[in-house]
Write the structure tokens for this entry.
Amino acid sequence: MLKKEQNDYLCQTGPGTPMGNLFRCYWMPALLSEELPENDCPPVRVKLLGERLLAFRDSEGKLGLIDEFCAHRGVSLWFGRNEDCGLRCPYHGWKYDVNGQCVDVPSEPAESGYAKKIKLKSYPLIDQGGVLWTYMGDPEKQPPLPEFEFSTVPLNQTFTTKRIQECNWLQAMEGGIDSSHVSFLHRGDLSNDPLFKGAAGNKYNMQDLSPVFEVVESDGGLLIGARRNAEDNQYYWRITPWVMPCYTGVPPRGDHPIHGHFWVPIDDESCWAWSYDYHPTRALTETEVAAMKDGKGVHVKYVPGTYRPLANKDNDYLMNRAAQKAGKTFSGIEGIGMQDASLQESMGPICDRTKENLVGTDNGIIMARHRLMRAARALADKGTVPPGVNPEHHKVRQAALLLPRDVQYKDGAKEALVARKGVRQTSV
Amino acid sequence: MQSESARMTTAREASYRVQYPNSKPRAVKVIALDPASARIVDEISKKSWNGAAFFTAPSFTTEETPGATGSGLKAWLKDLAGRTMDLVSEIEHCDFAVVITTAGTDARAVSVIADACALYHKSLVGLVVPGTDDSDAAVTQSMKHLRPYTRMLVIASGTDYIEAMLTALRA
């Protein structure tokens, strides 16, 4: 349970809000690289943290993320002409470079220097691992580039998608932290989904439906361990990392690619659910990539030409009551991503947490909220750099392993929880 | 025509949710397992709570038959007023229990509380509070004591987290 003011504090990420200021300390995924595929390609509208922006790749391949609207009369530059190293407004011809600097005001003499006095807000945009990342904070405090493993392995080892989720970022992200729902909502997928099935560890999930949890703080966020009984006086541990503010990893299964998410606010009532799959030591197979493109695992099928899931609120998520009744799916919705999204969107645009009734096993969620509020306050009061900004905090890995019952997972899985180049994931 | 899901997930529709208390106050027993955590519990108890009861366990004993379970289990707690209370009775009438231990201290008393919880099918949450200069080994040792008995085990970052957790659980 949260008080209304606490809920507002966590959910509002627009400019000037405490949580918005916190988010603006981090590099965040903004677009897929495929959205700006070549020099002088069409610009793309982007809304992040409640700011309307426009991304484009200029004639020299430079990337820009600038205010969407022309400083002259407020026209959307989405209609602009991307040519000769700049984006030209089609209304009166004002032109901007990737830094938002106006470089041409045709109605004024070039020698007047008028253009130099016009500059749109802009943010850096960098291409890493098939993702275009941006940093929307104070330029003086721009941190080093992100070093999440999924975006630093060779491109043939990683695959990332995004989908729009029509609710506040926090209720979406809390699903990524709350691994206790897996045994119910996703139970059918362990044996059917090509990106999950066949792992030896799956049997422990199926045999023990009452996992026990341990939550410990990490430098960048949390480690949430779920343990289940296994043979030979061992526990089967599935360990979920959360890196502040909005990165969650899903513990791996066998040699399947590792997956996880970023939950990036678009505005207070929608967010981007980013989903990645990668393998630390090998290229993804054609079969795996085909499955991901087909919406398997944590990915979804799209409404053609969009990043909106094909199953969405407008079609009741393609609810299949017969499949629900037959036990093929637990909720009647197909696919892990939409099983989560359908329920999280059903909470409403912003979940009313004043009415919730948490239990002890929700401590991962409680602690994540607590850390977010604590970090936002420390940033506001003392300018403290929040956890998760330091790229060293990104080098965390999810893990699934068997450990003797008297070993704490933070100790027993210490090496498994660190991303190490060329070292396979620890997985059962 | 709009789908039902599209119509029902707007902010406007959210405003029509029935406003009523959807849960009853719950009884939570918060038990300190050592003197250092007793000080933490004492501090936290001064806040306003819905139905939480706070105990210290400086003279935590089983009567006559250590390790006894079921109806043979006899153990005692002290509340913050210094009154001796029957552990089994307290657990019987709670919704769930929380034990707090400071890293590196002897937390084995948890087993008796866990027996009482098992007797009445109550969940037990364990919180380990690291001191400022506690080693990882001390935390590990405390976790080891609590792990077999708790459904949720947390290394709490400090008293502010304990308060946040109890508030979140409507304690």
Summary: Chain A has a mean pLDDT of 96.
